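Table S5 (text form). Sequence records supplied for joint modeling of the three-component complex.
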Amino acid sequence: MAKPLVKVAGLSRYFDVSAPWLNRVLDGQPRLMLRAVDGIDFEINKGETLALVGESGCGKSTVARLVVGLYRPSTGSIVFDGVDMAGLGGRAEMAPIRRRLQMIFQDPYASLNPRWRVSAIVSEPIRAFNLIKDEAAIVARVGQLLRQVGLSPVDGEKYPHEFSGGQRQRISIARALSSQPEFLVCDEPTSALDVSVQAQILNLMKDLQRQLGLTYLFISHNLAVVRHIADRVGVMYLGRLAEIGPKSTVFSLPRHPYTRMLLDTIPDLDMTGRQRTPVAGEVPNPINPPSGCAFHPRCPFANDRCRSERPEPKLNDTGSITACHAVEEGRLPAGPLTAAA
Amino acid sequence: MAALLEVEHLRIEFPTRRGTLVAVDDISLQIAEGEVLGVVGESGAGKSLTGTAIIGLLEPPGRIAAGEIRLMGRRIDNLPYEEMRKIRGKQIGAVFQDPLTSLNPLYSVGRQLVETIQTHTDMSPTQARTRALELLHEVGIPAAERRIDHYPHQFSGGMRQRVVIALALCVNPKLVIADEPTTALDVSIQAQIIALLKRLCRDHGTAIMLITHDMGVIAETADRVAVMYAGRIAEIGPVRSVIKEAKHPYSHGLMGSIPKINDEKERLDQIEGSMPRLTEIPPGCAFNPRCPHVFDRCRVERPELLDTGVTQASCWLYAHG
Amino acid sequence: MAIWRNFTDLVRRFLASDVYYSFKRSPTVVVAFALTMLFMVSAAFAPWIVPHNTYEVATLNLMDAFLPPAWVQGGKLTYLLGTDDQGRDVFSTIILGARVSLLVGFASVALALTMGVALGLIAGYVGGVTDSVIMRVADVKLSFPAILIVLLIDGVARGILPRDVHDKAAVYVIVLAIGLSTWIQYARTVRGLTLVEKNKEYVQAARVIGLHPMLIMFRHVLPNVMGPVLVIGTLGLGIAVLTESTLSFLGVGVPPTEPSLGTLIRIGNNFLFSGEWWMAIFPGLFLVILVLSVNLLGDWLRDALNPKLR
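The corresponding structure-token record, covering 972 residues in total, follows.
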């Protein structure tokens, strides 16, 4: 198999959420650390899409921001095409890597500077990386990019507020593509859009991936969208990967109890009359996560080992990787969970 | 079955300096007792405004320009504020998207429940508190006896939405307007809240107008569904028929554009373009510039809701029958 | 060419904007705007439009001192609003005085604005220790009344500068003093807005491509925080003019040879009870109208730019 384009190992990011120093000392409180991402590993091969799913607060957006370098990892490494990004010091050293990875954001209303013309927004990465020197060539390139995402070159003269949400997301994509990146990190790129517009954007992203050979890290909370766009899927829970594997395996042969429950919560559009079993309970506070396996308070299969010992990721015979004692010990029935729960 | 709520030719306008915007244009629908009517549409389709107009909370400068809203045969769209306030809460409950804004952060949830109960009934404070406890139990708040004196910020998002639902159900209203009740919640919590709404509706015979952009929620919950587009109803009918065999080209396209969990297709069906802004609604059928089946009549004449067999669709394709 | 296109585009966008619409709809604001413009234009061209150049000591005639306004018995038509104790035309001194007042106002607002916006941007964007240091300095400044700081700076300047040098530099000292005591407001507002803007995704997008923080601050964040700054600036102009007048009235402001409105009121105040009321009343009236117009304009701008009130 080819060398992965992105390799993430033992990645963690902690945020200090304690009260200001003086208040802390006066009240005698300890430092509070929020473990947004707590030791995860994954690889993304060239040309494929890895999707990370999970509920809010599971750390999936933090992973996206770590990978593009908006945050520095607390521990662990991110290796992009053989280069460890943590080892790069200055802005100049980072630039060649930065050009090759770009990001698409969730909120099409906040991701474009309202005071800038679309042409200036789209050409910003070109100018920042000094890719094209000639002004006329930049204009031509912007026009070409806008056409590529389904807009017209004359749209470059307009301001963001003149566009609908879906069109703005297209502009965002054009900006991301302008530095000719190989790797796009997409943080919930369609969750602020209406479904019919979401379909347009998802189709566009798939087309672009095929044409340009792009690699995607796709963050979403919507399992149906992930099923549609991803090649491989990682399910995150409280900063850790519960399960990661090829899409077909994760969706048809889910092993981790959380994955199974999550799949069970998807509203049934086919009207099969399937009874859904909602996951009991809610996501715990990540500042004070449960001991052992973070999912154990909501898990019907939890035993003493789950409450005390953190499960390590293990490769299953199906090709997916699961961090679960019950799966490892073969305590779980392979079929649907409803019978057991 | 007698209709509980009847909306007839409702039109909501926003006067602005660039002319009057028609946000909701000639909408008619009925909700029977104990029925769940889903209202879907993209943002700006006018679905939330319709709901707000029914509970009489339309914010000026928006106003009802034409049409009638009747609850159990009684006209409620022209009632003075005080009378409408009595109907709200007693006969119509409301659940909104953001549970935090529906609750007063300065009062404990128990106090808010007790106050609402006492406003609409003549229960004593002790009776009202007992009722409030019952309600909290019913919506599935664990340790309700302890939680009743907690403040809204001490509850998680899902628990808060449960409190809001309890508040809406305080005095057994006939109708609950639920405007995107699950949108702000996580998928696993979403399923819990949908299950709760369904159960309550079944147990109390409450009718629900469920406004959402999430077709999945509708499929799980609603009996009938109205698909809105650019301030008009594109199609209305039994939820199964609309999802499985939508007749209006818009609702058909909408269904095709939803990624499905057990459907392995390479590309999603997509409707080209986007919904027009309120200032740029085309003449004739509002959907005509995006419609794959458009013909001359669509561009000039606006279609009424026409029978298509099981559903009704406002589309000229069904004019011949 | 590009500049012209940008300019016409700006004008077109302004005429179509809600701000212009709300301006047209409010007669008070239109009047306030007209008055402010009138003051500013007349102040700008004062030396060419005043009937008597009162700075030219040679043209003054002591025989014309203490003349009442033209419509009062004993007034001369050439001295519309009367003359002062040195025979200077009150109308001319007011226009020339308003010029000094506005000059000080604009200059000190410009100083405070530049300082405040730059420090606020840096504090908000960089955060951490930088933020703490800048904002603590601001907090300390806030615990003194502005006028005290101004008096302190002016006092120090008087102490270290020889008298004649100080008279020449008086205007600069006052500008510096007012500027230094009012930048905090800009800094706090800009810092708050920057904290909001820097978490928006367009700023993150700029960070993803590795743009220098300075470029992000000034090209991305700055244009998006300038609205409220303009409002504070407008309101600040009124306050600066008033502060300058107060100082001059107290005798620590600009020298009486080139009087500002405040100086004129101080001079007139000495004669108020001996019957020569016009020397204090007219400059005072002008000051009130000027500050009122500017403040009305600022208040309106604040409301017009606030989407919540629209």
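Note: The interface with chain A takes residues 200-202, 204-212, 220, 223-224 of chain C (CB under 8 Å).
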